[in-house]
Design brief:
By secondary structure, the protein is an alpha+beta fold. The chain contains ten helices and 24 strands. Strand 1, helix 3 and strand 2 form a beta-alpha-beta unit. It starts with a helix and ends in a 5-residue tail after the last helix.
């Protein structure tokens, strides 16, 4: 009878503990993050945004429930993220999940919210099937709303959600000026960059010849790929802007390559001399790199014409980056026809190379002829880690602290217009926008843009390590089970021997 009451009491206690733990879990949320990049730990920037909310934010997640395992993890991670957002915001972030595949009405709601499905192929019952999948969300704050149309598996999930909330909660966005009037590409020619900037900033063209122009109203000014001579009075305006603590981003072309004429030449706008006066030398050369992009070469065989991709070292693919917020998380950036950068200025002003060429690189001076059929050898790349992007901070033109970021290629953030438009890689866009963020934004959201799942393909792992991992995955569970069995058998044997001892009760 006593044992029965004892068991009943224990069961009641267990249920009470479970109920209390469940109630506390709604208020207190935590998890342990053992990932190398702290992928599942909310940043300080996100926490500040959530703690400073003045009114509720409603997030409606339109996620298909029955997903393939490799995509289902995205839904689970997004839900965990929302639980943590709700906890930190003390309930001001509210959310609900709707499965648009449930019925026609739910699907129509997703379409009306601006969420479009994607077609995903998977295997079910040993046959290939295609399924319409929704992975988007609508963020609502008061009368304003923002759409995350598709949550790419492995993407920077926290950045997408935090910037969406930040965009809705900010009443007036800071201004970023894009200088025009010297042959620079228009804002429309930088569509991907402008789209990313629009999340936190208001970007507008700036004409330095306009008497009404006041650079001081811009939190950061950018000068991208000027091709015409820049008047001295415009440099004087930039100096006054820096002297008052302004921030400037320069993406310039010191040289130019024309593939239609297969020739390379110098570009002189006066910008190179102005930067040299601050100690930043954008050299008159082409950086060539063994890590590079390719160009299509027309070849003929018999009566057939075909295009072959040939590596072209004048299009360096940059994979060496400084450990800095501007370049953190970037994997590779294409910088066509870049030049090397050296610093000869005041050492009291910190100079940081941000992006460097590979260990097999070199320089060639213009004018030159591009031999696309040249067989490049290691002897053609005698240099290493040439700077092609850099940051200079300090008293650059006066007594106020200012920031100046320089890239020796002006085309990397440019899509082009019309039929010449092309899609840029995400890292090219991130490099430019990260630089604007670093110079402009003090919230720390810059650290989130490239926070996601890093690609670690198995084809980069040597065969010996692959074999070790395969056998470890196969044998470790078996070994653990055997060890557990041996320990348990030994323990039971000891108990039996003890019971056989004289005087055992």
């Amino acid at each position: 009878m006593k044992d029965s009451k004892k068991i009943t009491t224990q069961i009641i206690l267990v249920f009470a503990i479970l109920i209390i733990a469940n109630a506390l879990s709604d208020r207190l949320f935590f998890r342990l993050d053992f990932t190398s990049d702290k992928r599942y730990t909310l940043s300080k920037a996100t926490k500040n945004i959530l703690k400073n909310l003045n009114e509720p934010v409603t997030i409606t997640a339109y996620f298909t429930e029955d997903l393939p395992p490799d995509i289902a993890v995205t839904r689970r991670d997004f839900k965990d993220l929302l639980v943590e957002y709700a906890s930190i915001s003390h309930g001001l972030v509210m959310y609900e999940f709707i499965d648009p595949n449930l019925d026609q009405e739910a699907e129509q709601k997703a379409y009306q919210a601006g969420i479009q499905p994607v077609i995903v192929s998977s295997r079910e019952k040993d046959e290939a099937v295609q399924k319409k999948v929704f992975l988007g969300a609508k963020v609502q704050l008061g009368d304003q709303s923002d759409i995350i149309p598709f949550m790419q598996p492995g993407a920077a999930m926290e950045y997408a959600l935090s910037t969406s909330i930040k965009k809705l909660s900010v009443s007036e966005k800071p201004l970023v000026g894009i200088i025009q009037g010297h042959g620079e590409p228009s804002l429309a020619a930088m569509s991907q960059v402008m789209e990313s900037l629009s999340i936190l900033y208001e970007a507008e063209p700036v004409n330095l010849d306009d008497s009404a122009t006041m650079l001081t109203k811009y939190i950061t000014v950018a000068l991208v790929s000027p091709r015409d001579t820049i008047p001295e009075r415009h440099f004087a305006m930039l100096d006054r802007y820096l002297a008052r603590g302004g921030n400037l981003l320069v993406a310039m072309d010191r040289v130019d390559g024309d593939l239609s004429t297969v020739q390379g030449k110098s570009i002189e706008t006066g910008l190179e001399m102005w930067l040299a006066g601050k100690g930043i030398l954008v050299e008159n050369n082409f950086v060539v790199d063994a890590s590079c992009g390719s160009v299509g070469v027309q070849q003929r065989q018999g009566i057939f014409n075909f295009t072959t991709n040939v590596r072209f070292p004048y299009l360096p693919i940059i994979v060496n980056f400084a450990d800095h917020p501007i370049t953190k998380g970037l994997e590779q950036v294409l910088l066509p026809f870049a030049s090397s950068i050296t610093y000869t200025g005041d050492t009291s002003n910190p100079f940081i190379p941000l992006a460097m060429s590979s260990d097999k690189s070199g320089t060639l001076s213009p004018p030159l002829y591009f031999d696309v059929n040249k067989k490049w050898a290691d002897i053609d790349f005698p240099m290493s880690k040439l700077a092609v992007g850099a940051l200079l901070t300090g008293n650059l033109a006066g007594n106020e602290e200012a920031g100046l970021v320089v890239f020796s290629d002006g085309q990397f953030p440019v899509n082009g217009e019309g039929r010449n438009a092309q899609q840029l890689s995400g890292d090219n866009v991130s490099l430019f926008v990260n630089a604007i963020d670093f110079l402009s934004d003090d919230t720390g959201l810059i650290d989130l843009r490239t926070k996601g799942v890093t690609s670690r393909p198995l084809d980069q792992v040597d065969d010996g390590k692959k074999a070790l991992l395969k056998w470890l995955n196969f044998l470790l569970p078996i070994i653990l089970i055997l060890v557990y069995g041996v320990i348990r058998a030994q323990r039971r044997r000891m108990i039996r021997l003890k019971r056989m001892e004289k005087g055992y009760i």
